[in-house]
Amino acid sequence: MARFLLVHGASHGAWCWRDVVPALTALGHSATAIDLPSHGADPTPAAAIGLQDYIDAILAALPEPAIVVAHSMAGVPATGAADRAPASVQRLVYLCAYRPEDGDSVASLRRAQTEQPLLTAIRRDPDGTTFRFDAAMAPELFYHDCSPADRAFALDRLVPQAIRPQAEPVTLTGAIASVPRSYILCSEDRAIPPRDQQRMAAALADDEVYERPWSHSPFLAHPEALASLLSGIAAP
């Protein structure tokens, strides 16, 4: 069976995969979720990190090759990690995630979107190194198809997001082309517009794009279905 490494998006942490890890385990796989620097239980100050720190954290969590599942923002550092060490990434799965080309950043990909649903919800912190998502707007942006309990679980755990890792461009050598890649397109996503997901997924083969009627957070709203889909993607 497959080995999975699950990488969270902006302001989230390993906690968001709470229900997916046991669902994958029940299907016979092994799964590990990590906290990127300054997220979850990781104590690194947000002011001290850049994109390379995210990339290094992903690579450090790959002592053995695995299928890397990158959610949202994590698509950029996960692509950087796969490009740097393609033998360590058996497959890269973008879960409603930003898929960069050389020189792209999370910020540049967001600015290129046809719509900007996140822009009005971003609140820059006074120190200028982090931002937060407006607590009143986050439920509809990220968790509109989640249960009230799961919504509260997530909102209680969101952390300030470091700006520098999102602003810095990723450098790709071309080695990423040797890594099999898949895209899970969430057609009910209110954070990254589905039409922009379609545009980013268009570079992949049609049979590597999987569309589901999910929000931006299927790991909470549909964990068993997501695990089943990932299991199918992992099958030879």
From TrEMBL:
Pfam families in UniProt: Abhydrolase_6
SUPFAM superfamilies: alpha/beta-Hydrolases
AB hydrolase-1 domain boundaries: 4-228
InterPro entries assigned to the protein according to its UniProt record, in alphabetical order: AB_hydrolase_1, AB_hydrolase_fold, Sec-Metab_Biosynth_Hydrolase
Gene3D superfamilies attached to this UniProt entry: alpha/beta hydrolase
Alphabetized PANTHER family for the sequence: AB HYDROLASE-1 DOMAIN-CONTAINING PROTEIN-RELATED, ESTERASE_LIPASE_THIOESTERASE DOMAIN-CONTAINING PROTEIN
Name of protein: Esterase EstC, putative
Species for this entry: Salipiger bermudensis (strain DSM 26914 / JCM 13377 / KCTC 12554 / HTCC2601)
